[in-house]
Amino acid sequence: MLNVVTGRPETVVKPWTQNPLVRALSFTGSTEVGRILYGQCAATIKKLVLELGGHAPFIVFNDADIDFAIEEAIKAKFATSGQDCLGANRFFIQRQCYDEFCQKMIAATKALTVGPGMDDPDIGPLMNDQAVRKQETHVSDASQKGARLGCGCGKNDLGPLFFNPTVLLDVPEDALIMHEESFGPIAALTPFDDEMEIVERANASEFGLVAYVHSHDPRRIYRMSRALQYGMVAVNRTKVTGAPIPFGGMKQSGLGREGARQGMSEFMEIKYVCRDWA
After folding, report:
1. Which domains does the chain have, with CATH numbers?
2. What is the DSSP annotation of 31-95?
3. How far apart are alpha carbons 8 and 137 in whole angstroms?
4. In the predicted model, is pLDDT for residue 37 greater than 90?
């Protein structure tokens, strides 16, 4: 049986979070709302599964297949018009292949179609005016701090919720988009030099849902997979979801896992019974 209850948060959510009969709560949404639910559930010590925001790094080393990395970068950034917690937000490209990657990323982004959903475009409308304003703020802020516009930027003539797919180049570390989830069709590209540097930069985030790594060096892949502070690491691919996958993140990207055996365990309690048969 499935029940769907809709209404205002104060009339629907609080009765659930404050009721001691409810022993577990699962939520998928923003980190901001997740914090509120976390606090509301504290009084009754509920088990929580929180799938919250992301700020995924997309890391490309110079030994990667650049053409394939571009194909996966387009998927990781522009699927669902960038409105996805798994969406790549920060693109770190090793300096030796940075210029080539930038040129090919711009060309691939320019080839994307924009339109209403019924027309099956690559990029559709954003969810609301606030989402569009956030894209504009991120582009403006990055540009003021020295980033270069590769392509896109600005609203599309189709309507107020359509934002053109955008590529920003040489984005500085202090730009807002390097610290906030854009949740929209903006790819922020920046170069890096060595492995130790990029691990530190990629981990410098309060989010830790998924990271994408492109390399053909097995030792590097092993080191990166262990060093990145993310609940999921996709190596030379973008798709990581599915029923057998323990989906979830670290830090402020959430608590617990959905799917697989680990996801079932989140809604179970361990009971230990010690019995004397004498």
Report:
1. 9-51+249-265 (no CATH), 56-235 (3.40.309.10)
2. HHHHHHHHHHHGGGT-EEEEE----EEEEE-TTS-HHHHHHHHHHHHHGGGG-STT-EEEEEEEG
3. 29
4. yes
**pLDDT tens, residue by residue, 229-254:** 999 999 999 999 988 999 999 999 99
Q: What does the alpha-carbon distance between residue 67 and residue 69 come to, in Å, rounded to a whole number?
A: 5
β partners of residue 233? 211
Catalytic residues: 51, 85
User: What's the pTM value of the predicted model, to 2 decimals?
Assistant: 0.94
Integer distance in angstroms from the first to the last C-alpha of the chain?
45
Percentage of the chain surpassing pLDDT 70? Answer: 100
| Residue-level pLDDT at 203 | 98
Q: How far apart are CA 211 and CA 229, in angstroms?
A: 9
- CA–CA separation, 46 vs 18, rounded Å? 9
CA angle 77/227/61 to nearest 5° reads 50
Burial of 114 (0-12, 13-18, 19+ CB in 10 A): buried
- How far is 113 from 132, CA to CA, in rounded Å? 18
- Alpha-carbon torsion angle 42, 44, 47, 53, nearest 10: -30
Quote the CA–CA distance of 48 and 51 in Å, as a whole number.
Answer: 10
Q: What's the length of the chain? A: 278
Q: Are strands 47-51 and 24-28 parallel, antiparallel or unpaired?
A: parallel
Q: Are 21 and 39 in contact (CB under 8 A)?
A: no
Q: Please provide the average confidence, as pLDDT, over all residues in the chain.
A: 95
